[in-house]
Design a protein that fits this description.
By secondary structure, this protein is mainly alpha-helical. It contains 14 helices and two strands; from the N terminus they run H-H-E-E-H-H-H-H-H-H-H-H-H-H-H-H. The termini are far apart.
Length: 307
């Protein structure tokens, strides 16, 4: 009879000694928060402070407030770099992603022989570094000895001196990145196609729907979440383009800056000219643009879930 009161008394003492909040989870998460603060928040704050200054090398800087951002509005090189980056992004999204989806649809057929070989072959270029891809396509797009010019000359009689890297810099960059990343995006679409209900496709076929209607009303809505994610991933990757044009154009923006991208202009401003403040301002404009794209992706995804 006396055991129950003693047990309840000891239990109340244990509760009275308990801390108001658990320490163990916070101790386990402390390294993560430390890394975020040290490698994310501190650089962000330092970069924003640096964007309000004009620097002349590592030893001298002066406070200009919003002067760097005001100068961006009237800087013709910035607008050239932004225009080139947007054109490259549109080319990558509108050409590369539909091609990736078509390849995924073709390789998703269960009766296709050699599916594994084709999947691995198309995915393997993404394993090659961007610098190596730039070196390969510098040889391919060479004006006289390049593989493309020789093939076009042999097949159609085109001028063997066709200036790919002089007058057609953006198409050259889009072709090179399409070769490298079309298989990478194809894998995302293949994963999405695995989740498409086969019963819905069979029901649509029994109702008389042709291949286009089955794709439009069954497959496309099912893969839309992955599709919007791949679009966002492609936009972010396109705005970070640097290594490929740097190698193809020998560290310059090319003739008349036709291959100058935002990251390349940021690099030239910060590390060649020495104005790290203006380079930080360019970086913050890029961050705002990509943030707006991420918000747009979130809005589109929410609407797709509600639909």
């Amino acid at each position: 009879m006396s055991a129950q009161p003693v047990a309840s008394l000891s239990h109340s003492r244990v509760q009275s000694r308990a801390l108001p909040f658990p320490i163990a989870p916070w101790l386990l998460m402390a390294p993560f928060f430390f890394g975020v603060i040290l490698f994310t928040l501190v650089p962000l704050v330092s970069s924003f402070q640096l964007s309000t200054r004009q620097t002349f090398g590592p030893e001298f800087s002066t406070n200009v407030g919003a002067g760097n951002f005001k100068f961006l509005a009237s800087d013709p090189l910035f607008w050239t770099a932004l225009r080139n980056t947007v054109v490259f992004t549109l080319g990558s999204v509108l050409i590369q992603l539909p091609l990736s989806l078509l390849l995924a649809l073709a390789l998703n057929r269960p009766n296709l022989r050699g599916r594994t070989f084709f999947r691995v072959s198309l995915f393997s270029p993404v394993l090659v570094g961007a610098v190596f891809v730039g070196m390969i396509f510098a040889v391919i797009f060479d004006k006289r000895t390049g593989l493309i010019n020789r093939a076009l000359h042999a097949a159609f009689g085109w001028d063997i001196d066709f200036p790919w890297l002089e007058d057609y810099v953006m198409p050259s960059l889009i072709i090179a990145t399409t070769w490298q990343y079309v298989g990478f995006n194809m894998v995302y679409f293949l994963a999405a196609l695995q989740n498409v209900s086969a019963e819905l496709g069979e029901a649509a076929m029994l109702d008389g729907a042709n291949a286009w209607n089955r794709f439009r009303h069954v497959i496309l809505p099912a893969i839309m979440p992955v599709g919007t994610f791949v679009v966002l991933l492609s936009i972010i990757g396109s705005f970070q383009l640097f290594e490929l044009p740097y190698i193809l154009l020998n560290g310059t923006g090319g003739p008349q800056n036709r291959g100058l991208t935002l990251v390349m202009y940021l690099y030239q401003t910060g590390f060649q000219t020495g104005d790290l403040g203006y380079a930080s301002a360019i970086g913050w404009v890029m961050a705002l643009i990509l943030g707006a794209c991420a918000i747009g992706h979130r809005v589109v995804s929410k609407r797709g879930e509600r639909a």
